[in-house]
Amino acid sequence: MLADLLQNHQHEAKAEERTAGVKVPKRSWKERLRNWRHFFSKETVIKLQEEGKTILSLLSFFGLLLVFLLELLWKMIGQIKILGKIVSSTDRFWQTKLGNWGERVIAKLEGHRGGVRRSFLIALAFRNMRAKRTRSFVTVGGMGVGIAAIVFLVSVGYGLQRLVVSRVARLEELKMADVTIGQASNIRLDGEAIQTMQNIGGVEKVMPIVSLVGKVFFEGGNSESVVYGVSGEYLEVAGLNKIKGDWFTTREEAGLLPDVRVCKRLVLEVESAMSNLT
Question: Which of 102, 113, 114, 173 is most buried per CB count within 10 Å?
Answer without folding.
Answer: 102
